[in-house]
Backbone:
């Protein structure tokens, strides 16, 4: 096997290994961020490997709220078990550490969603959600007059949703005025 082929194979095994270690669905953006920040491979090799693994059904893709989330498939686990040995022990250790450190962060990112869309030239729809176990706890849609307002609301929701949600529930249950 030439070096280029070995590198491609090793990169695919690395992606499968990471997805097995993280144990939760991961978006392309999250996966890209982790792989690039840790310099496991470059962007183009990552996207090529990801595309090939999905085509070969070694990675499953699920779309939620217009975002694709990836998990290792059963077939991917079997292939990983056969080829896991080509990954150096140091890389496996590093992937394990990274996966443990960011699992909670990824769960949080996946559970708090804020996005906006242009409705017409003077109106944006903002959608703010908290999702737990694939079920929405709260799903709010707002109309605002500017892109800046939409961005500001999305940013604040992502930073403060955990505080806003109980306040909204309290007000709706009549406990907000006590």
Residues:
């Amino acid at each position: 096997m030439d070096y280029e082929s070995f590198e491609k194979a090793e990169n695919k095994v690395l992606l499968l290994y990471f997805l097995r270690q993280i144990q939760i669905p991961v978006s392309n953006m999250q996966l890209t961020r982790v792989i690039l920040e840790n310099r496991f491979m470059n962007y183009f090799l990552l996207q090529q490997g990801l595309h090939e693994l999905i085509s070969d059904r070694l990675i499953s893709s699920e779309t939620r709220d217009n975002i694709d989330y990836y998990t290792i498939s059963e077939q991917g686990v079997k292939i990983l078990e056969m080829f896991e040995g080509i990954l150096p022990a140091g890389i496996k250790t590093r992937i394990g550490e990274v996966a443990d450190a960011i699992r909670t962060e990824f769960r949080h990112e996946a559970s708090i969603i804020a996005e906006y869309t242009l409705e017409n030239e003077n109106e944006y729809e903002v959608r703010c959600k908290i999702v737990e176990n694939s079920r929405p706890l709260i799903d709010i849609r707002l109309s605002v007059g500017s892109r800046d307002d939409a961005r500001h609301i999305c940013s604040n929701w992502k930073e403060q949703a955990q505080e806003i949600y109980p306040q909204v529930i309290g007000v709706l249950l009549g406990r907000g005025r006590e």
